Every structure is written in C-alpha cells, then in structure tokens.
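Tokens for chain A. Residues wanted.
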C-alpha cells in the first residue's frame, strides 16, 4: 500500500506539515479567517473554561477532541425585525440563520484545509428532539458571553456591545489551542429600559427580571415543535373538517402552512424588536425616547393579533387585562415530559407564580420503578425551589411509579385509576396537590 500514489502524496504532505499544530494556533490569524468568512464579530473560548462546566460533557460527547470553541455573530437588519408584519421579520430571521450556517461551514472548510479538525453545530435547527429531550446540540448563548460577544439582557437574549441584540449566534468546535482567548466584557449593554417588558404580548418578561418560559414558549414558538404537536392532535381529534374549522380558523391553518413551507415562524420576538441597547442602535432612543417608543414599541402593542396562551396561566390573565384588543387563543403548549429527570428540571420553567400567590408548602416526591428519584419542591412567596432528596418536613408527600406519573402528566391515564391500582400514593391534604397542579397548567 505504501507504493500507492494517494498514500505517497499523503506522506509527503504529512512530512511537510509536521509540527504545524503542535504549538498553539495564532489567535489573530484565526480571527481574520472567521471575519473573512463573513462573521461580523468573533471570540474564542477554551474547553476548560468554568463558564462551560455545565456544557462540557455534551460538547465532548459531540466532538471528543474539542479544545477551543469559536463563537461568532451575524448581524440582522433592524427595521425588518421591527415590522408588525411577521412575515417580514421572519424572513430576516431565516435569511441570517442561513448566513450563520454558511459561515460556520466556510470556517470549518478553511480550517480543514489547514489540517485542523472542526465541527459547526446548527444555528438552532434541526432540533435534536429525539435524543435526550434537549432541543439543541450546543447552547450558543453562554459560549458567546464567555467569548466576550455580549451579555444577557433581562429579555434573556445576548446583547452585543456594538450591534445590540440584533444578532444571531454560531459556534465552531476545533481540536487546537490558541495563543490567546477571549474574556467576557466587563459590563452589561442592557439598559434595563423595560421596553421589552412593555412590548411582550404575554407578559413573559417581568419588570422585576422574572421570566415566564412557558408564556414565551407557548405563544412565540407556537409554530415550532410544541405548538405543531398540539395542532396535529387537534386535527386527529376532529371528527371532520367542519369540527376542525370550529377549533382552528383559516388564518391559523394558513400560518401553519407558511411555517411548514418556508420555515417555522416566530409569533412575536417583540423583545428583540424594541431593544435600544448597543452602540449602533442606541442613537434614536437617546435622542427622543418618547418618539422611539411611539415608532417602535407602540405599533406592536396596538397590533390586533391572536395570542396563544395556556388556559388558567399567568399569560392568559395578563393578555386579557393588558391587551384586551388582542384575541386570546387557549391552547396546549404541546410539551411532553419524557422522564422524571426532565419533569423535575422543567418545574421552574413551567411555574406560574401568580397561580401560587397564596401557596406556601413543602412537597416530597418519591419516584419508584424504572426511574427512581427523590426530590423536594418548596413553593412560597411566589417562588419555587427544586432540590434532590428529601429535605426538611413535608406538608405533602407523593409516592409514584415513575412511568405511571409520566403517563398521568401526558393525560394517557387517569388519577383515579392510578390511585386505585396503588401506582400513586399520597399523604397530606389533597388541596395541596390541587394547589400544586394550578401552578403548572399545560
């Protein structure tokens, strides 16, 4: 085989390149490569950084040789995102997502030509929903913050110091070390002006910094995975087309078709639209704040639109009170708990604090069978705490077979039958269980 022309050519190249990457790669060279590929800004983070502690295992599983992560941003045009026509805003999102994908591909292509192994995970989709239940292979936001590309604002988006939050993020994993790496910026570009609070149609962003994940997910991502699941089940549960049209109007059907044909559409993302942070963005806001609000935020507030909320949720209460001219549409968010681990991890994200305003209780959960676990959930002062194990004295105890509990949450079995069969046992006032359920409408 050593005499084969391909093997001879490879050996010659290997000899010529011997030692090329045995020393750290020059950071400026890599930065220039990324900018020439089309990135608007870029930063670098080593795999050992503490900011990646909660991601390192997943990153190494994805790319075992990972040593340095390249984080880059692509700018979005501001005026399309501010449009009340969501087709205009979503076209901008999809166009720049394509840019991120192309640029990541180009960076990997250039590095590969230099003998560097590299991998570019998708900017957001396709989603890995069939693996661990986590909807992404890598979390771009904390990597971007670690790489000095911005900080997280109260709307939970990365705000770049120059471009503001009108950016999309990409990440490339490499198997080389660099001469230097980036550090987080030492201030938060977020102005805490609360325009995102004022513009959000479902009250997902609290003036005190609280974030209601369920409210945001149910409305803004209606045409993504969860809402799509709910829509499909609405179809299958309808006896005929007349019954379907009574549940879903023609405009909703057309909108879902649009998402299926041209890419899933965000229903709002108004928090991005109105944000004035960033050196390139802040000028009009500082010049005339009242006019900025009237031109940018007010049209989104005044827009007559359908707003998707879970029944008896904080979002339903908020929309009816704050935006009576918007049409409330009661739906399921389509989220399915696949495991006890996911159930416990998801409780803080699904918690509706206004539904818990009069509740102060400690719950002990014990799960048996296929997935064993113990947990303590404390709800008081409109907050929730979830910890492993049984801590303190419980006001209410629940012991359940893990698979039965998951089926119960999915409404595939009834509470009465689960109790009669002994698959679920409780100790304590049942009113506390009902109060607990009210905090997590789905």
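Reply:
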């Amino acid at each position: 085989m050593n005499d084969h022309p391909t093997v001879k050519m490879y050996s010659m190249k290997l000899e010529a390149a011997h030692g090329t990457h045995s020393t750290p790669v020059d950071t400026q060279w890599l930065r220039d490569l990324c900018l020439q590929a089309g990135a608007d800004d870029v930063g670098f983070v080593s795999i050992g950084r503490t900011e990646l502690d909660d991601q390192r295992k997943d990153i190494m599983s994805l790319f075992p040789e990972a040593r340095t992560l390249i984080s880059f941003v692509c700018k979005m045009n501001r005026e399309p995102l501010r449009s009340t026509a969501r087709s205009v805003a979503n076209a901008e999102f999809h166009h720049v997502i394509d840019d991120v994908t192309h640029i990541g591909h180009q960076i990997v292509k250039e590095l590969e030509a230099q003998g560097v192994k590299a991998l570019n995970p998708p900017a957001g989709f396709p989603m890995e929903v069939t693996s661990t239940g986590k909807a992404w292979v890598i979390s771009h936001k904390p990597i971007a913050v670690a790489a000095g590309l911005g900080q997280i604002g109260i709307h939970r988006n990365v705000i770049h110091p120059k471009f503001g939050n009108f950016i999309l993020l990409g990440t490339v994993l490499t198997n080389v070390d660099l001469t230097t790496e980036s550090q987080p910026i030492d201030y938060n570009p977020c102005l805490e002006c609360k325009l995102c609070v004022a513009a959000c149609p479902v009250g997902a962003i609290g003036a005190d910094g609280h974030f209601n994940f369920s409210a945001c997910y149910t409305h803004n991502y209606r045409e993504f995975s969860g809402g799509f699941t709910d829509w499909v089940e609405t179809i299958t549960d309808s006896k005929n087309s007349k019954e379907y049209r009574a549940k879903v109007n023609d405009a909703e059907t057309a909108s879902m078709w649009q998402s299926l044909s041209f890419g899933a559409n965000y229903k709002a993302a108004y928090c991005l639209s109105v944000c004035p942070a960033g050196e390139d963005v802040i000028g009009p806001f500082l010049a005339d704040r009242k006019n900025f609000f009237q031109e940018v935020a007010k049209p989104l507030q005044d827009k007559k639109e359908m707003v998707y909320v879970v029944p008896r949720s904080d979002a339903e209460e908020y929309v009816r009170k704050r935006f009576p001219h918007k049409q409330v549409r009661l739906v399921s968010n389509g989220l399915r708990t696949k495991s006890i681990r996911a159930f416990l991890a998801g409780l803080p994200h699904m918690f509706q604090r206004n539904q818990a305003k009069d509740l102060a209780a400690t719950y002990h959960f014990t799960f048996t069978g296929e997935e064993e676990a113990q947990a303590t959930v404390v709800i008081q002062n409109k907050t929730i705490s979830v910890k492993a194990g049984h801590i303190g004295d419980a006001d209410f105890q629940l012991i359940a077979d893990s698979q039965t509990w998951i089926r119960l949450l999915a409404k595939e079995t009834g509470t009465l039958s689960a109790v009669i069969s002994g698959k679920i046992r409780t100790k304590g006032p049942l009113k506390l269980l009902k109060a607990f359920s009210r905090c997590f409408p789905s």
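The radius of gyration is 25 Å. Residues 16-174 form one domain.
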